[in-house]
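Researcher: Can you fold this with TUI in place?
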Amino acid sequence: MTKITDLVGIKYPIFQGGMAWVADYHIAAAVSNAGGLGIIGVGGADEVWLKDQIAKCRELTDKPFGVNLMLMNPRAPQIAEVIAEEKVKVVTTGAGSPGKYIPMWKEAGIIVIPVVAGVALAKKMEKEGADAVIAEGTESGGHVGEATTMALVPQVVDAVSIPVIAAGGIADGRGVAASFMLGAEGVQCGTVFCASEEANIHQNYKDMILKAKDSSTRVTGRSAGAPVRQIRNQLTNEFIKLEEAHASFEEIESLGVGALRKAVVDGDVKGGTFMAGQISGMISEIRPAKVIIESMFEQADKLLGRKLEV
Ligand code: TUI
């Protein structure tokens, strides 16, 4: 039990990351049913898609679940309203500052937990009424900041009084125990749930994670202002070449359009963007979400000396 299990009403202090295109109601419901917090990731989808996903998730679970709003989505204002109307238990946000939506969400009784990649935004979020923050290190897949989880989490913990959830590079009980040592009250994991039985994605995506090594991910898009970590393939090699040649923003952007869909839906191993974290190299099997969660906390409990039975 931590401040996060109390706040959200879940058994295990673990959130499933709101991964664009990957985190639909299938994995969200599975994680919530297993005692964590499943999260529907809206990514670049719209509010009509989200309403349908929320309804389907409610059919599969009576446990709390959340919605992640990616703030670079052009329909963010409309999606934010649907989140308030639907009164989902928790909202998380990414790739920006959700400040202007916080009063509306709090009025609807929603728990607001922004993802931050630095201390400044964490402090701002606390001041603007966030209930907790997720401090996400650059080990994560997808859109990333600069600081590592090891360096970021204790600095955010020291800077705010609200609970902090650690994210980035966590996929087993060692990562959970280490996060608690850094002062976190919970963890958020993405990549390991991408490699779960319930993730509704192309098998090639899961295979890319299984085959990945410690050094398999690359960050592209820094020059365009949107650094994204993904598993290295033909597309990332082309990206890197363009960036090294100082190609125009438009040229770089055009290469990435639709690439996440190509990875998740088509399983296009050459032309897709397989967003995944550095911990991919440690993941060697596809397991049900319940097994992932239970084995993580069994291992963490042992490491922390809390529970002796196996
Ligand atoms: O948001 C994420 N991860 C994501 S979003 C995404 S979809 C996308 N695809 C291509 C390009 C861009 C996005 C895939 N993965 N994680 C949370 C996160 N937020 N990481 C970093 C940040 C962040 C960065 C800068 C949050 C705020 C920020 O500055 C905000 C401000 O105004 O200070």
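Model: Folded with TUI in place. Residues 7 and 231 are 35 Å apart (CA to CA).
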